[in-house]
């Protein structure tokens, strides 16, 4: 998951586009997808923080 989030950001996807995709995944996957969606948002936050700091 970490690699994919970083990859799509590097390819030019906006955070809003990724969030929309994750929201759809959550709707389709239900509670089984919730852990992965939370993790993906955490990864985006870590990447955002590392870019601000570096």
Mind explaining what this structure looks like?
This protein has 54 residues and is mainly α. It has one domain. The protein is 87% helix and 0% strand. It has helices at residues 2-10, 15-29, 31-53. α2 runs antiparallel to α3. The chain starts with a helix and ends with a helix.
In short:
This protein is mainly α and 54 residues long. It has 3 helices and no strands.
Q: How many β strands by DSSP?
A: 0
Instruction: Tell me roughly what share of residues is in helical segments.
Output: over 70%
Q: What are the segments in which pLDDT stays under 50 over at least 5 consecutive residues?
A: none
**Structure classification:** mainly alpha
Shape descriptor: globular
User: Average pLDDT across residues?
Assistant: 93
Question: Which terms summarize this structure?
Answer:
single chain, 54 residues, mainly alpha, 3 helices, 0% strand, globular
